[in-house]
Inverse folding.
């Protein structure tokens, strides 16, 4: 049973989708506060390269992931300063952060002795449960064969959902993203809430990037995210800013991205270049259909709009 | 204009008594804007220098070397001008869209579509047409290719309001994938069939390769300068440009004035896409001489956003800024020769865009340090 193509494909879809789950759930927190951080792609790269550097130096993937999270959170503070305090155009800042993240991560990859980009993996995350458990029918490969980061991402998704809809601070977060002027009048520190959630989003994107170098590819190379960060930001929109839906969307993305693997199991041959287009084509088509169907948007009403008390 | 009012948040809340007040400026002058952006440029190179220092390089040596390699010889100057051409065009493409408040980041994909279409025209028509006609055919094909690719984002935007940031982004990746497929994944018309072991694009006929005049600049640069002038005039002097600017200032005002948003969105996207497409076409004719994915997909579209933003969305200012960025781009490959990561160029571009985006704050607002009464808590 565990040899079934479906099960094998789902297992690969989970690991391929995990960076998007992490980065996307973080982006939900950021966007719920009213800040549209398009720089996720760049932030993930920062997490990926710093995590790989630390792990190849220390041999500990845990240390690598921690540094990836911290470095990415610091990096995302650029977005915080520009979008919250300086009220800059968030589309332009996002693109700038992707350019900067791409360049800076590549630059960091050329440092060190030997340079980070030429190093071999220093250690990767391994499955939590013993091999024998993986053979249990269906639940073995699907639920019990994963590494700690996958379980962490599930906890994070559940935590984000709970936090946003079941806690007081989560309600404050939604208020700030929806109507900052009223939130301000009610005494909420709008800027502080936004800064905090930009940092949380950055940290999660860093974890997603770290997962790339510390598990999925167990290697670092330039621009290795290849659009995953952008996909994460867009899936947030498709998931209506809800992390459980995002989890499903991210695994769907993982399944589509790893379709080449599935087709190989089935014995089909399709050029990898065409398969690489598929996730982007699907997202494009889904976006067009969703907007054509014109459901009521659940977007935070003040998304991407800077808040300035004076113009209240 | 709103009268400047003081943000008394600081004094009122008691917790945050920062001795700073922020006032909205009544109006900002153009020279002031330019000055702030120039400061942002200098700041970006300063931050780049700090990064170089941290990496153990001497920033003065690196910058002097970069300057030499960009302007030091006629050969270097020619390379700089070659990189300037596509950046003028993508900068204009971004300018047109952003002026209307359409946040298209699709110049990258449209440039690729233009390259594919332009290379096809060069390979098909090049051998049979005289040089000037063949070059014109490539430019037209590239413009059409870019415009068609932009339409894929424009039509959903115009009809359903589909977010153009998302669609243009996805279309960038799709265009890149198609170009990669044409050269690496199949034996297509664009691929050099005489050498199947090493995937490469088929070299375009000589009639479509642009030779530099006086060994310095080629027809592509002249075309891009002419287009900058045309875009500037179109924005200022035509009904199309007027309507675009009205819609950019206020969508509501535009629709109240009876300007058709649907037609306008599609036409603006098409013009923007055509400009980015021509960038791809001239790039193939003047630099790569074949459909070479690795040489074409070098973020010229994204750098176009940097150019347009630094140029304050003014078509004529795009030219000098593109020249500066072109210099930066053209030296990137040679940096690794003397032990500096070529990525430093991308870092500087990113910092420039961030500084310029942040600097807008100081254009729109006046920040003053004021005295706050002690003990207001």
């Amino acid at each position: 049973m565990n040899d079934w193509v479906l099960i094998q494909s789902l297992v690969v879809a989970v690991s391929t989708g995990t960076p998007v789950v992490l980065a996307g759930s973080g982006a939900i927190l950021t966007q719920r506060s009213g800040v549209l951080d398009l720089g996720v792609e760049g932030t993930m790269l920062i997490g990926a390269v710093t995590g790989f550097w630390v792990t190849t130096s220390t041999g500990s993937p845990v240390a690598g992931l921690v540094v990836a999270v911290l470095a990415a959170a610091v990096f995302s503070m650029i977005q915080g300063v520009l979008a919250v305090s300086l009220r800059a155009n968030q589309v332009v800042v996002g693109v700038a952060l992707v350019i900067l993240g791409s360049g800076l991560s590549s630059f960091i990859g050329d440092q060190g002795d030997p340079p980070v980009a030429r190093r071999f993996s220093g250690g990767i995350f391994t499955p939590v449960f013993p091999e024998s458990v993986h053979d249990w029918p269906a639940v073995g490969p699907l639920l019990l064969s994963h590494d700690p980061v996958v379980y962490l991402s599930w906890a994070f998704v559940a935590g984000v959902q709970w936090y946003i809809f079941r806690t007081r601070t989560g309600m404050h977060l939604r208020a700030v993203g929806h109507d900052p002027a009223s939130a301000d009048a009610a005494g909420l520190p709008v800027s502080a809430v936004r800064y905090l959630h930009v940092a949380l989003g950055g940290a999660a994107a860093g974890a997603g990037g770290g997962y790339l170098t510390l598990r999925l590819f167990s290697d670092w190379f330039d621009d290795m995210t290849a659009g995953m960060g952008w996909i994460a930001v867009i899936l947030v929109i498709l998931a209506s800013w809800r992390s459980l839906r995002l989890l499903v969307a991210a695994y769907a993305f993982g399944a589509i991205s790893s379709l080449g693997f599935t087709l190989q199991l089935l014995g089909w041959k399709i050029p990898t270049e065409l398969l690489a287009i598929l996730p982007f084509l699907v997202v494009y088509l889904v976006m067009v259909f969703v907007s054509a169907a014109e459901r009521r948007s659940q977007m935070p009403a003040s998304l991407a709009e800077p808040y300035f008390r004076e113009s209240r | 204009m709103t009268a400047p009012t003081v943000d008394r948040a600081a004094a009122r809340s008691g917790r945050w008594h920062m001795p700073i007040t922020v006032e909205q400026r009544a109006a900002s002058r153009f020279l002031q804007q330019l000055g702030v952006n120039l400061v942002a440029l200098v700041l970006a190179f300063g931050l780049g220098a700090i990064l170089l220092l941290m990496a153990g390089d001497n920033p003065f040596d690196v910058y002097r070397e970069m300057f030499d390699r960009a302007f030091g010889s006629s050969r270097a100057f020619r390379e700089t001008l070659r990189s300037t051409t596509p950046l003028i065009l993508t900068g204009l493409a971004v300018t047109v869209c952003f002026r209307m408040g359409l946040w298209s980041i699709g110049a990258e994909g449209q440039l690729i579509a233009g390259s594919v279409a332009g290379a096809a025209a060069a390979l098909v028509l090049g051998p049979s047409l005289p040089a000037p006609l063949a070059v014109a055919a490539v430019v037209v094909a590239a413009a059409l290719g870019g415009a068609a690719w932009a339409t894929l984002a424009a039509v959903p935007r115009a009809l359903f309001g589909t977010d153009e940031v998302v669609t243009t982004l996805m279309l960038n990746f799709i265009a890149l994938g198609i170009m990669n497929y044409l050269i690496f994944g199949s034996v297509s018309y664009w691929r050099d069939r005489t050498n199947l072991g090493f995937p490469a694009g088929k070299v375009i006929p000589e009639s479509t390769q642009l030779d530099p005049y006086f060994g310095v600049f080629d027809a592509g640069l002249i075309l891009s300068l002419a287009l900058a002038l045309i875009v500037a005039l179109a924005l200022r002097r035509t009904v199309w440009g007027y309507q675009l600017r009205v819609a950019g200032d206020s969508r509501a005002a535009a629709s109240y004035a009876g300007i058709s948003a649907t037609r306008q969105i599609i036409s603006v996207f098409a013009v923007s896409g055509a400009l980015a497409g021509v960038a791809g076409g001239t790039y193939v004719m003047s630099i790569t001489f074949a459909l070479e994915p690795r040489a074409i997909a070098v973020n010229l579209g994204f750098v176009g956003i940097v150019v347009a933003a630094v140029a304050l969305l003014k078509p004529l200012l795009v030219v000098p800024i593109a020249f500066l960025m072109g210099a930066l781009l053209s030296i990137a490959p040679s940096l690794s020769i003397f032990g500096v990561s070529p990525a430093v160029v991308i870092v500087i571009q990113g910092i420039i865009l961030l500084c310029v985006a942040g600097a807008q704050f100081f254009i729109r607002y006046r920040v003053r340090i004021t005295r706050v009464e002690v003990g207001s808590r």
